[in-house]
Design a protein that fits this description.
Strand order of the largest sheet: 6-8-7-9-10-11-12-14-13
Number of strands: 14
Largest sheet: 9 strands, mixed
Distance between the termini: 36 Å
Shape: globular
Structural class: alpha/beta
Number of domains: 2
Number of helices: 16
């Protein structure tokens, strides 16, 4: 099977950042395609745009690398190697450093390279311990992050010719980790995904963060996978782990382990936002897996509920497209038996890109008017004019109803054939 998959969204983001004077930081989970994007797709594009191959300096520092990466993890050796590859100050050079967090004190080398007027620097990392709130300090305000996810459904389908329904079943079962494209059998796919957990992700998180209670970490991973898209907080997770998995752990440790897993880009927590009150709920989040195949493999492919998998896939799709995503709640009151009763109506996603805001419901099926009203009830209690969208699991033609609500079929949206406007 041809496994060359173009990743046009990320390639465009790198092109737009070329020579902008900032360090380009490509982050994402291990094995999601960061190296492929940088060393193959972007490198090929630069060469096609006239950059000489010798002016592209690539170094892989991955712990699993078979080249001289181990020697180059020494800061002095890495610095000497890079300077030897860039002898002419009149030439323009492009430096790619893969898994740069493996070098102690890497930020000094990266900042020194970026300060040179003839060097454009790109780095990748699988752990965000050197990003987020510290990014401006570490890179002196000159760090520009490009977050990468496993293959979207559109990318997954781009080199395939099977019917879209069959591809969808494969995707929501095994997900979009790029290496799966060279794993033709179900047995190989399952083994690969489970090996990633046992030999890569759990080991990486435990070793990087000095986790002593590995059993509790694994129990937490299982709990998050089992409850994707469910509202939770550290206290609730403690009770769940104690009741169902007999894990000994406290809320502070759970909060730390959640942060470790998010820093490794394995899960993302979406904050809960009160639409009418214009405020966030402290600590309450919904957690989504970076890839549904990884999620399924962790649970031995049990609990494959199409509604939850569709919601997780849509969350990731929105993030890939550059949206910031919260989960919403609308507080309402109604009269019942002569007294006022409060209730909370859920909105699956509130997505914003800085210019527009969209309220989005993920509806695997709307079989009847009762189900339709259930999905729309929260929309009816929102008085603002932002676009309200329902993405339906069935194959429907896009349309807008009399209330201004926009309906899209799942495949049309994921494959880029229809959008919110």
């Amino acid at each position: 099977m041809q496994n060359y998959v173009n990743r046009p969204i990320y390639l465009e983001r790198l092109r737009n950042r070329r020579d902008n004077g900032e360090v380009k930081i490509i982050t994402g989970p291990r094995r999601a395609g960061k190296s492929w994007l940088l060393h193959r797709l972007y490198r090929d594009w630069l060469i096609g745009d006239g950059v000489a191959p010798d002016n592209i300096v690539s170094v892989s520092l991955d712990l699993d690398s078979l080249d001289d990466a181990a020697d180059l993890r020494n800061p002095a050796a890495l610095k000497a190697h890079l300077l030897a590859k860039m002898p002419d100050p009149a030439q323009r050079y492009y430096v790619f450093l893969d898994e740069v967090q493996e070098v102690e004190g890497f930020e000094r080398i990266v900042n020194a390279l970026n300060a040179k007027g003839n060097v454009d620097v790109y780095i990748t990392g699988s752990n965000s311990r050197f990003l987020s709130s510290d990014i401006n300090t570490i890179f002196r305000g000159r760090g520009d992050e490009v977050r990468i996810f496993p293959l979207t459904f559109g990318e997954f389908c781009s080199r395939r010719s099977e019917p879209v329904g069959l591809l969808w079943k494969e995707y929501y079962t095994y997900g979009g980790m790029p290496a799966l494209l060279s794993q033709p059998t179900e047995e190989q796919k399952i083994n690969y995904l489970q090996r990633l957990w046992s030999k890569t992700y759990i080991d990486d998180v435990a070793e990087r963060n000095g986790v002593r209670n590995r059993a509790a970490l694994e129990a937490l991973v299982n709990a998050l996978c089992s409850a994707v898209g469910s509202l939770t907080n550290p206290s609730r997770i403690v009770h769940l782990l104690q009741d169902r998995q007999r894990a000994t752990i406290d809320s502070a440790t759970v909060a730390n382990y959640l942060r470790f897993l998010e820093n490794a880009f394995l899960f993302e927590g979406a904050n809960r936002y009160d639409v009418k009150g214009n405020k966030y709920y402290d600590s309450i989040k919904k957690y989504y897996a970076c890839d549904v195949g990884l999620r399924n493999a962790r649970l031995n492919f049990r609990q494959q509920e199409p509604t939850h998998l569709m919601e997780n896939i849509l969350y990731n799709e929105l993030r890939v497209r550059g949206f910031l995503v919260d989960v919403g709640v609308v507080n309402t009151r109604r009269m019942q038996d002569g007294r006022s009763v409060s209730s909370q109506l859920e909105i699956d996603f509130i997505a914003t890109n800085g210019r527009e805001r969209y309220y989005i419901q993920s509806a695997y099926a709307i079989a009847d008017d009762r189900k339709r009203e259930q999905e729309l009830q929260s929309f009816r209690h929102i008085n603002d004019s932002f676009r309200k969208v329902i993405i339906v699991g069935s194959d429907i033609a896009p349309y807008t109803d009399n209330n201004g609500y926009r309906y899209l079929g799942l495949f049309d949206y994921l494959l880029g054939r229809a959008d919110f406007v």
